[in-house]
Specification:
single chain, 268 residues, alpha+beta, Thrombin, subunit H, 6-stranded antiparallel barrel, 2 helices, 12 strands, elongated
């Protein structure tokens, strides 16, 4: 019995010594040997998962940056294409209006100078544009300015050396005589400054006029030939106690779409 107790005591002592040795080695780099390999075997699955997640995150981030760059590049291409399309549309409109002017000139005895609209005014209470023809081209103030289809666009307001300012019919400074299309007498005075329409004042009370009648220039203005289409009667203001009617005329010139105009330099 005593020998067995001694044997178990020796075994216990050996186990204790081994545990002490392992504890010492654990505090040194020597543990990175066999035990390190053992621990690395346990840790390896977690390390692989961690590396995979990290790498995937880097790929996703890289792809997102590339996607943003690609979208920005495509957006720039779309903007460039839109600008090209706008220039083509503008050139097409100018071509169509130029063809209209050719047809107008071939059927008229007027001397007309074609001009391109360069700048549209954004000043409050002003309704004017700047054209690329001026004094060197024979442009003078109060000359009539028409569109390609022969409608009155406005009058020349100011003249510079190579450009001129054209006031549209709706501008407050515009005043000219008008008449009915099938009449030879001046019907009244056209005045701008009433929004999108032109007021026609001093129309005799007994005048036979109706809505949608065509109003043209009367020819009383020295630089404005007779018969140029102004617009259609939009409203008739009648006061039985007043000697005159007041008409409101909607201009037929397409202001926003017009890029080319013609300045008439001599009356019919």
């Amino acid at each position: 019995m005593r020998s067995k107790s001694v044997e178990w005591g020796v075994r216990f002592a050996m186990i204790a010594v081994a545990a002490l040795v392992l504890a010492v080695l654990a505090r040194t780099n020597i543990v990175r040997g066999a035990s390190g390999r053992f621990l690395s075997w346990i840790e390896s699955p977690f390390t692989i998962v961690s590396d995979a997640v990290g790498n995937q995150g880097a790929v996703v981030f890289s792809s997102r940056q590339e996607l943003i760059a690609e979208l920005q590049e495509r957006e720039e291409q779309v903007l460039q294409l839109a600008k090209i399309a706008a220039r083509w549309e503008q050139a097409e409109q100018e071509r169509d209006q130029a063809l209209l002017f050719l047809g107008y000139k071939s059927g008229s005895s007027e001397i007309m100078v074609p001009a391109k609209i360069r700048v549209r005014s954004s000043i409050r209470d002003s309704d004017s544009v700047l054209i690329d023809k001026g004094a060197v081209d024979g442009i003078k103030t109060q000359q009539a300015v028409i569109t390609g289809d022969g409608a009155l666009y406005g009058l020349v307001g100011e003249v510079f050396a190579q450009t001129a300012r054209v006031v549209r019919l709706t501008d407050p400074t515009v005043v000219l005589g008008g008449r009915l299309l099938d009449s030879e007498q001046t019907l009244g005075v056209m005045e701008g400054g009433f929004g999108p329409v032109v007021r026609m004042a001093y129309v005799a009370q007994d005048t036979d006029v109706h809505l949608n009648d065509v109003i043209v220039t009367s020819g009383v203005d020295p630089f404005v030939p007779a018969g140029i289409v102004i617009g259609l009667v939009n409203a008739i203001e009648e006061d039985p106690n007043a000697p005159f009617l007041t008409l409101y005329v909607e201009p037929l010139a397409q202001v926003q779409k017009t890029r080319l105009v013609g300045v008439i330099q001599s009356p019919l």
